[in-house]
Structures are given as structure tokens and as C-alpha cells.
Amino acid sequence: MERTVPGLFARQATGLVREGNSRSVLIYNINFVSIGLMLVFALIMIPAFYPGANVEGTFVAAFVVVIPTSLIYAMLAAAMPRSGGDYVYVSRILGPSWGMMSSLNNTIWWILYGGVPSAFFAYYGLTPLLRGLGVLTNNATLIRYGNDLSTPTGAFIIGALLIIVLVTIFAMGLNLYFKIQNVLFAIAMVGILVTIGILVATSHTEFVSAFNHYIGRVTGHANSYAAVKAAAAKGGFATAPFSLYWTLIPITWIYLELVFNQSSAYIGGEVKRPGRVQLWSMPFAAIVSTGIAMIIAWQMERVVGTSFLGAVSYNGGAAMGFASTPVYTELVSYAARNVVLGFVVTFSFLFWSYSWLPGQILNSSRNLLAYGIDGVMPAWLGKVSEKRHTPVNALVVMGIGSIAALWLYTRPTGPFKTLTGIFGFILSFLMVSLAAMLFPYRQRAVWEASPVAWRWGRFPVISVLGALSFAACGYMAWDYLNDPLSGLSVVPHHTGGLFGHQDFAMFILNILIWVAGWVVYQVAKKVRARQGVDLDATYRELPVE
Amino acid sequence: MPVTEQTAPAADELLAAAAEVIGAAETVGATLRLLGGVAVFQLAPSASRPPLARRYHDFDVVVPARQGALAARVFREAGYTEDRHFNALHGAQRLIFASPRGFVVDVIVGTFRMCHELDLGRDLPGSGLTIRPADLLLTKLQIVQIEEKDLLDAVALLTDLPMEGPAGATVSAATIDMGRFVGPLAGDWGFYHTVEQNLPKVMSFARDQLGAPGAQPVVDSGRRLTEAMQAAPKSMRWKIRSRAGERVTWYELPEEPGHSAGSQ
């Protein structure tokens, strides 16, 4: 049995000094959420495409839905402080084939989603930076360069370069990444503070005046603000009275980011004092991220105008002479009426635009490493660099997969939309929620010895929260299947091809990817059995770390 | 089967196993040296008899930073099994192996990192089984939450091994080189502070265990080390850090015993 190490399990401590202190872990979780991206999608999508939605209400509802899942991950990470997240929890509580099912599902979607933030780096990072500076300095060349970076080719090239750079950094060592991460996070947070300061100091009238001044130089319209609204109305944009339904449906765009506040579960082996740090850092990351985003969203609606936010997105930036919708940082930069402040706001946002990507690379490459070591996938995936002990083979696989996904994502008529794979992640969250519910019953000794052996009356707290999380995830699964912009549909619309409408094909793909891990495990079990290895037994023992 | 107090191997057995692996490493050009309790057992005769004798459950070795892979190969060829996940991810700093007999071996790769850091792998002795006595004593005195077993080891070292120094003076292998002991402390205030707090505990423990006359060598050595520490010129970094003092945490805490419940 490859993973059984005689005598190892009597050890209660390895004496290892872990790298991740509370600050690094909190930053890691907030980075994976990305306050900036959460705001981009909330402000671009909700006012424009969900008539009657209340943006602040959507944020609150998203937080309520996310927090039970955040809490169960926090508790499981505290109880089983080992890297791997659901690979550890689900395999230990429900069984190894289910653990592989949940884990491989996440791994594949992380690889596919590696293409998404790398495209965001162009769409929402570099394009607004160049375009914003171009507008502020009346430089048409900068505006054109900014627009060019958001074309399919531009975004693909920029995104591929970013993936290669990050994979290389991780191949050199995790310590290097953590040092860089904390510095870039500080820059990103400076941008957040400056953004809030500019908004608080700007009235709606002042914004309209600034917008007309700067964009008027681009479009030639004296009242570009009104022209944008008129163009959007002509195209079919309309506001609507408050609708609870349309407030709740676009939770999808906020859940997309906020639910990943639990990402430090996947590097649990690196976290210092996990019994405490993991317990508070995940929900705290959710609270901080939601709070800051709500403040900025509220101010953006006050200063820029909710209907204008909807109109400019609905119009896709065309009435401004742009190739894509301006993001909130560009609008804030106009409000600043100052090139330096505008630069600070748009430059600092670069580090929010791709901030999912490092965690995706880290989590998926470590999972691939584990699969290789455990024998469920080819052994070469489990190889590390002799010099640096980094999982280079797994990193290369991740990099190649993400670049391929990037190409798909940047195709204008491609099937892979921003929300397409979150349904797949939710399927894994459902499994983790079930594992949390059953943890005190199926792993009683482990639960009782853990820092989270709490009860409400006679019910284990983690079981109650697991049930709440299961319900919340169930709701979100329904939400993604009913959001008209999710790119998913349970109903095939026969327009030809194997599955007809591509939204149905994406739904089937989600299911197939989810099931794939279970199939892989069964195949690996049979193959390893012929080699004299009992794969189930290797999962029964969990070395300390 | 897990190693327990009742089934823990004898110190001689652990020492013999360590010697075998160290010898095997030498044949492939790797330098392994013992640290921890078994190293104390090897260097200090007092550690093998009451009241300073104790049980050992495992042995620890250190290897230079670039020889981790070589060390891993030596252990595998000697029949040890490894935690492949742990060694894959942490092998640049630490490796864990288990012997067929059931005890565990920690392999420190390069830098010793617990409450404080010590680059042991930089210049390991060219011969012998253990790291240098001064380094061994530092690894004991760097423990912030020092336990009885560490106090026993420290007392044994200070009882049996004479002091020698300062730096630059000829130092024989079985002595505690004061210059080498003081060197890392003069550049790291936190490390210095932990050691200056622990030396009185060691001296007091020695009196309890050995009585006043028996503890005298320990007390004398402890005082000489303290004086040497105080007299050593301090780096600018040390001086700046000393101003913050205990208001800023000055140590790391290794993994707490008992929290890895998910492993069982």
C-alpha cells in the first residue's frame, strides 16, 4: 500500500513550520473572490440585463446563499488540515470514488476556467487601462490599442502569455508566489481605497459633466451621457420596477466569485494553526469582499446612475466609440478628472482582473499531483522537480489545458460562457455539503477530536450547516439553469447537431465532467488491482502532512 | 503498527539504524548527520543513565540543501517507506520516512526551521555521526515551549561536553564551540531572546535533577554561554529588532500536537 507509512500515524505533529500565516491565507481567499471582478460583473450585467433587479439586494442574497458553504469548508479545513480540499473531505467521509468524482470535477473546471481570468486580464485589466488613459489624455492611439486587446486574437495572446508566466513562477516555487501575491494585493487594495475616495467626493452632476467632457472628445457629441442612454433605448434597453425574481436570478454573477472564498481549503497543509485560521479566514473573506463591493456598487449607482450603468452595458460601449463595454474603473477614472488618479484606479485593477488564475493553477496542479501519486492517473503526473520540489508535469498539463480553454472562451460564438462551468462546481459543493452533514456520523472519532466538535442541542453544528449548504447549493444549481445568460439549459432546443442547442450541450458536458471522476476511479481501481494494489486501502490512511 | 512508549525501539537500536543510513549515504556522496535526542545520546554519556536518560521514538537527520534527492534514494534503498504526498510537496525542506521497524525519520533538508531557523546543512562535519555540539544545543534551546525531554537533552550536553571558544580558537569535536553557538544569536534577536529565556530554565532543571553539586558544570557552562551571548557584537538588524522586543511575536510555532486529527 503505497500511502501507508508504518508508524507515521502515531505522530501527532510533524513539527513542520507552515508557510501560510493568517494574513497570507486571508489575502489568498480574498484574491480568489476578486472584489474587482465581482463588481465588474455586478455592474455590467445586472442593471443592463435583469430588468427590475436591485443590485444591493442581489449582493445581500448572494452572501446569504454563500455563507453556509463557506462555513462548512472552514470547519472541514479545520478538522482535516491537509491540502486537497474536497479530495480529502469527500474521500474520507463518503468514500474514495466519490472523493475522486468531486475532486476531478473541480480540477477539470479549474483547468478550463484557467482560460477565463487570463482573458479578463485583457478585457477588464489592460483594455480599460489603455483606453481610460487614452480618454483622459485625448490620445486616440491608446484608445485603439485598448480596443485591440479585447479582440479575440488580442485577448488570446495576452492571456496565453499570462498563463505561461504564472506557470513558470509556480514551477520555481510557492514561496516566490506568496511574496509577489501580498505586494500585488496591497496595490489592488490601494486602488479600491482610491476608487471609494473618488466616488464619495463626486456628485452625479459632476460625473455627467466629466463624462461629457472626456467622451465628447472621442464621439464629438456634446452630451454623450444622454446619447448613450438614447442609443441603448433604441436598441431595446428599458428599466423596470423592482422585481424580487430578477433580483435573485443574477446572484449567479456574484456567486461566480464569492463562493470561492473557501479556496484556502485546497492549500490546507500550508496553513499555520489551521484549527483557528481556516475557521475565520473564509467567512471573513466573504464578509470583507461583499462589504467593500456593496459600498462601491452603491456609490457607483449614486454617482453614475443605475439606468446609465444599464444603458452603457446594454449598448456594449458602441455609443462611446468603444469596442467593448467600459468597466467601472474607466467610469471612475473620468470622475477623477485627473490622469494620475485615473491611472491608479485602472492600473491597480490589473491585479483583480486575473486574481483567480494563480489559485486555479495551484489547486488544479496539486490535485493532478495527488492523482499521480495515488495511482488513479499516470504516475508522471506525480513527479516533482528534483531541485525545487514543484509539480512541473502537473503544471504543464494545467497550462496547456488552460491555453486551449482560453482559445475557446475568446471565440465570440463559442459555447464556453463565463457562467457555464459554475454549475459544475456546484455539483462538487453539493457533495461536500453532504459530506459535512455526515461527518460526525461516518468519522465520529475524527470529528470528536477536531476543533469543530460543536453541537446545537443534540445536533452537530457541522451537520446543520451542511444541510443549509446543501439547500443553498441546490438553489444555486436551479438558478444557474434558469439564468438566461448562463449558457446552460436542461431543455434541448433542436437546431441541429448532436445535441441541438449548445446550451443543452454545455449542461450535458457539466454532468459528464462530474461523473468522469467516478469512472476514472473505477478504471484505476481495476488496473491497480491487477498490479496487486488495493486502491481503496490507500485512501483509508491519511498521513498527517 | 504505530510506535508507542512500550514498543519504542531502544536508543542503541535507533543509533545503529542511523549509523547504517549515514554510512550508506557516504558511499553515494551524501552527508547525513544526526540531530535531536539520539544525537545527544551519542555525544553525552549522561543521557544513557538516570536521571537524564529518556526514551526516543525516532531519529532525525539533516542533509545539505542540494542532497535531498540523494538522501531520499538512500532511505528507499535501505527499505524505508515514505509519505509520497508530503515528500513530493515539501521535499525541498523536509522528508519523512518510516522504517520497517515502525519508527519515523525526519530528514531536514538544508535549513532547520522550527521556532527559529538555523542553516545546519551549510557546513556539516566531515566525519562523525552527529551535527556539531554547539548546533545541537541551539536546536534544543530554540524551542519556545521547551519540554522536559528537551531540558534533559540540554542538561546532558552541558554536563558532559566542555565549553571551548571563542571563535577562531581550535575546537575539538566533542566540545561546545562557544563562538559557533553565539554566532547565529548575534544576528537574530528573536533566537537570542528565546535562548536567553531557556538557559535559566536549563540551569534550574539541572539543579532539580542532579542536585546543586551535580548541576554545577551545567550552571557554569550556562553562565559562560550567557556572558558570551551578551558580549558578542550584535548586527544592526538585531539592534533594530530588539527595540520592538516582545511586543512583536519573535518566533514561529511548529504544528501543534494533536490538531491533525483528520489523519487518524
Rg from alpha-carbon coordinates of chain B:
18 Å
Main beta-sheet annotation of chain B: 5 strands, mixed
Give the helix level of chain A as a range of percent.
over 70%
What number of domains of chain B?
A: 2
Mean pLDDT across all amino acids of chain B: 89
Query: Overall 3D geometry of chain B?
Result: globular
CATH superfamily of chain A: Amino acid/polyamine transporter I
Count of folded domains of chain A: 1
- Report the total helices of chain A: 24
Q: How would you classify the helix and strand content of chain B by structural class?
A: alpha/beta
Short description:
The complex is a heterodimer of chains A (545) and B (264). Chain A is mainly alpha-helical and 545 residues long. In chain A, 70% of the residues lie in helices and 1% in strands.
Question: Can you describe what's shown?
Answer:
The complex is a heterodimer of chains A (545) and B (264). With 545 residues, chain A is mainly alpha-helical. Chain A has one domain (18-540): Amino acid/polyamine transporter I (Up-down Bundle), CATH 1.20.1740. In chain A, 70% of the residues lie in helices and 1% in strands. Chain A is globular, with a radius of gyration of 24 Å. The two termini of chain A are 17 Å apart. Chain B has 264 residues and is α/β, with parallel strands linked by helices. Chain B has 2 domains: 7-131, Beta Polymerase, domain 2 (2-Layer Sandwich); 132-244, no CATH class. Chain B is built from 9 helices and 9 strands. In chain B, the strands form 3 sheets. Chain B has a 5-stranded mixed sheet. In chain B, strands 6-7 form a two-stranded antiparallel sheet. Chain B has a two-stranded parallel sheet with strand order 8-9. The interface between A and B is large, with 49 and 44 residues.
